[in-house]
Amino acid sequence: MIVRALAFLVLLLATPAFADDVSRMGAVLDVQGIVEGDVTLAGARVTVEAEIAGDLVLAGATVGIGAATKVARNAFVFGDAVAMGGQYSQRVWAVGNEVVLDVRTAGDVSVAAARVIVGPNARIGGRLKVWSADAAEIDPRAVVTGGVEQNFGGATNAIEALMGYVGMVIRWVFNAALVVVAVAFAAFEPGFLSGSAGQIAARPVAALAWGVGLGAGVPVLALFAAITLVGIPFAGALILFFALALAMAYIVSAGFVGELALRAAGRGEMPAAAWRIGAVLFGLVALAVLRHIPVVGDPLLWAAYIVGLGALALEIHRRLR
After folding, report:
1. Of 18, 79, 85, residue with least CA distance to 48
2. Beta bridge partners of 164
3. Which helix (H) or strand (E) holds 234?
4. In 10 A of CB 318, how many CB atoms?
5. Together in a domain, 8 and 122
6. Stated pTM of the model
7. Of 100, 128, 154, the domain-final residue
8. Domain limit, last residue, from 128, 154, 180
9. Which of 26, 134, 177, 294 has the fewest CB atoms inside 10 Å of its own CB, making it the most exposed?
10. In whole angstroms, what is the distance from residue 154 CA to residue 76 CA?
11. 119 touches 100 (CB < 8 A)
């Protein structure tokens, strides 16, 4: 899961943001006016009073959303002290120590906090779901059309459920990105993919040795670089590119499995594009199945990463000579 999260972060950072989106990180953040895309903010004090055409994602020690705010899609808010006003077209999620809701929405509102306060101007068209050790404090003038679902197990269960949902989304997005990249390499760079996979067949011991060396050495190098303030940017870049290399290593191992399948089908020499793409997809599916085998599944998964990483390094070295 750590490798997948790191690789997904790299793919996310490598993807250019839409011009209409607002993404910021800082101590004090304030967004006003009209935003035609999503708003994503993380800081010590975060305030928003704007019309937002996309999703709203906020994280901060203190988070405030003004009454004039309009969000066309969903809102996800995390903070110690959260005060939410405004109008929301879809669903609202809020997690914090104290959450004050004065929102207007046609959808559901889910809140996990030590203290939940629903203000007099709240108009919730869906269901209010609360995870808290104490009952939500709901003003008599507030309107909750779908009723209130009070869970007294505390916020832990809600946060665990949210993290499980986030983890599922990351896995699906990562796997989809992995398939796209694998198909692209099979279709447009078959020589590189085939050459890297061929290194596993021709030099398995060398691929394993290179993979172990890089897998152990790069994180240690990044750690030493991070000790000094000057080396922190280098360490961050090194870890990000290392995670991307691990994703590519997995594709290389899938390519190796696909090459074995091609040879078994009698199409090992310069197969057509459809066969190459089908082979690498077969390899990805085969690895996904193998990793679920009890006891040996996880070692096989790590072997795919390590041997693939070594083979990738060997092929790059061969091409640079």
Report:
1. 85
2. none
3. helix 232-264
4. 12
5. yes
6. 0.52
7. 154
8. 154
9. 294
10. 19
11. yes
The tokens describing 280, both together, are 């690498």
Please return the burial class of 88, using the count of CB atoms within 10 Å of its CB with bins 0-12, 13-18 and 19+.
buried
Written as one letter, the residue type at 133 is A
Rounded CA-CA distance 178/165 in Å is 20
Cα separations in angstroms, 194 against 43, 188, 256, 272, 275: 46, 12, 8, 13, 13
The tokens describing 24, both together, are: 């910021």
CA distance 136 to 47: 24
22 bridge partner residues = 39
- Radius of gyration in angstroms for the set of CA atoms belonging to the chain, rounded to a whole number: 25
pLDDT of residue 48: 95
Instruction: Tell me the residue range of the domain where 115 lies.
Output: 2-154
pLDDT tens digits, the chain, 321 residues: what are they? 444 444 444 444 444 444 578 888 777 889 999 999 899 888 888 999 999 999 998 888 899 999 999 999 999 998 889 999 999 999 999 988 899 999 999 999 999 888 899 999 999 999 999 988 888 999 999 999 999 998 875 555 555 555 555 556 666 767 777 788 888 877 787 788 888 888 898 898 999 999 999 888 888 888 887 776 667 778 778 888 888 888 889 999 988 888 887 777 766 555 567 777 888 888 888 888 888 788 888 888 889 999 999 999 998 988 887
Residue 180 lies in a domain: no
Q: What is the DSSP string of 273-321?
A: HHHHHHHHHHHHHHHHHHTTSTTTHHHHHHHHHHHHHHHHHHHHHHHH-
Which residue has tokens 């077969």? 282
Total count of residues recorded for the chain: 321
Residue 306 falls inside a structural domain = yes
In angstroms, the Cα distances linking 304 to 95, 132, 189, 243 are: 38, 43, 21, 14
